[in-house]
Amino acid sequence: MNAVTPLGAYRALHPGMGQAVAERTVLRKLPVQRHITIPIDVVKQADAGKLDEIVRETAQEMGFEPARGADGSIQVTYYGAKDEPTVAVVDTTEKRFETWGDVAQRVALGNASLIPRELNTHKTFGFIREYTALRAAISKAALLLSGRHLQHGDKDQPSRNMEVFTNCSTSPVRFGLFQLLLNGSGVGTSYDDDLCITDWNNAPNLRVVISAAHPDFEWGVDEDVRDARHKYVGGNVIWHEVADTREGWAKAIEIWERMAFERIWKDHTLVLDFSKVRPRGAPIMGMQGRPSSGPKPLMAALMKCASVKGSGMKPWMQAMYLDHYLAECVLVGGARRSARMATKWWGDEDVLDFIRIKRPIEYADLSMEEVVALRQSRVDAGLPPLNSFLWSSNNSVMVDREFWELVRHASDMVAAGKGLSSMSRKIRHAWKVWTTLTECAYADGTGEPGIINADMLVQKDDGWEEMVKKPFVGSAKYQVEEETEFYLSRLAKVALAKPWHMITNPCGEISLTVLGGYCVIADMVPFFADSLDEALGIARVTTRALMRVNLMDSLYDPEVKRTNRIGVGLTGVHEFAWKFFNVSFRQLLDPDFTARYTYPVYEGQDRALASIEQGRRESNPRIRAAAFWRFLALMSNTVVETATEYATELGVVVPHTMLTIKPAGTTSKLFGLTEGWHLPSMLEYLRWVQFRYDDPLVAEYRAKGYPTRELKSYHGTVIVGFPTKPTICDIGIPDHLMVTAGEATPEEQYEWLRLGEAFWINGQSDYEDPSTGHGFGNQISYTLKYKPDLVSYEEFAAMLLRHQPTVRCCSVMPQVDNAAFEYVPEQSITKVEFEEIANAISEMLAEDIGREHLDCATGACPVDIKDEK
User: Which pTM was predicted?
Assistant: First the structure.
């Protein structure tokens, strides 16, 4: 599929993730329309039934069967010349993937349909205005609603639950986390001691049963319901039939969790009957017909969960195991990965156990140096790294300003030769947390756990006390049991007493309460705008579109109404900076905010934009860089102004937070853009794609000159390499100004993050003065890479101590040498190697790379992007 794009030569036929990513995550299959030409005299002479017969016979001669309507007649559309009309009919035997224009149309339709009826009068033209603007922005790829919107958005959106359209969420309860994961939302959870009020040692004994008539029943493995009725009898046995819905699955967890909290069911038995759950492979219509996992994964997960009772773990650790087992079940379901964030407060007594909880058991009792040596020995032996335990979550320690002050004080004492015994108990605890955390993050090669500054996350408590007086979980699709309400009220009281009750979603870009909440997010792509003024217009369109999603029914309806959170983000930032301001990464780090055209310009948008337009045309790159940052601040403030105005129009609260930058991986890859706030990871690389050894495409690719390799560790698998370059390579940035993530120093990356937080997240007019910002920002999700062979532990710890307190959150990860691994999805190559491989390929086979693959060959971007005015 060739690209059709008026957006510039740099996008025409550009290599990117393109069709394969789109088909995996976004595109639906649509019926194919066929055209049949029928002589006019035949049309005039034939009655309706006869014409149906003519159309059917003609279609069959062409090799397909036309679709029929509900009344049984063939559905036809006439167009063309009057004397020889063409009939369009739907082919039932063939379907096509959507074009990008199709996606824009259905997603815009679904979102605009959320507009309240009273705003859709003939005077306001609300629907027409919003639909037209949103469709145009998406069609142009200047607005990329999240992959969840692109996948699910259509005319049925108003009747669906909001969870399906949310990327980010939090939950303090196991059943809430499970329900959110099943809906595809990434979930953050606080495992603070005070929030884990359920001791699962008090849970009833759990049993799972299923009818022998169920297609998934296995003799010798499963317990038949009929047999179980003989065994589980008496007043101490409670039976519950699990419904065949996501809500039904979550309800089973809710009942078990509530009983564990109540502490009176410890000697009872809860029997869960899974007989009504659809079998494995049955289609799930709410997931576009994807096959069901069947009941067995959840049944197995619950038996793992049952093993927590009597294990000797404290409640916070019990909760971590339970959530992991449930997340594994969702992963088996195949709908998506189970994205989770796990946090714990630095002052908790057991936080050191939390810091070490994901470490492989082989690291137990080893020093930091011994762990490093063990990992290197496996690399030398060609062995894969040891897998982390409880791997389904990203773990972070929540800290505050007091923590950093205590760590600095302890560091000074250690440098002065004073031992731990001379420190106060609180200083000693902070120092132990710090050293354990940094040693694990460095020695284990994982960068975990991370660090999040709780006191820097935006926390607005308007309506908080009133909101927590009622059950904070419940929607039209899911109502909690009456007995569960007391459990939720106890959790709310604990949260209300915490000084910091905000954590983040799994990728760290959204501030959400520990009790539960969402954020709906999207990426603006100003690189694809034709002017700065158009980019500001897209900021307004994006803001309104996200606010409409918050009108949907949701599991956390009270919190959504209280906060109305949204997250307007950016992606393709480096491409945008070069296209409009002619500045690259290192130039952006050295702006001159004192020069002409760079003074605070918030007296009005027209004056501000005029000043920025002048600044971006200056010959001095420092002035152009300053103009870039000023424009980001102007866009940021435009979001806030638009949200404030639209909140009045909709009759809702002004969103508590509005700005963010998410990782933007999938949506950015659709267009070969740098992802979110990140630098390009590689400029030229081979994307290795896996095929079965007997796939006929392998021989075809090999014959055309594509590099191929048979894997030893994956028997029967062949990988094919597709030479790939991101968009940033083709927009004219000179080689000496191009910087990849591996080439930027940690200090440069922290400054890049601080600038982004100041101007985009906080909308500041003065870089040094946060009070000049609007205060409606979330965070930037950013992963900073360092090379452990060049950075010692002491340098690593000093870097964190100096820079991590200055940003809201940042993931710091080692840059791993992939040479030891037989298969990696992306392999960096030099420009010369790229050209050699590309030149050796005699014919590009982009159209043959289907939905089961991760990329397309160089020279073609199969996503069909069309401007739709």
Answer: 0.86
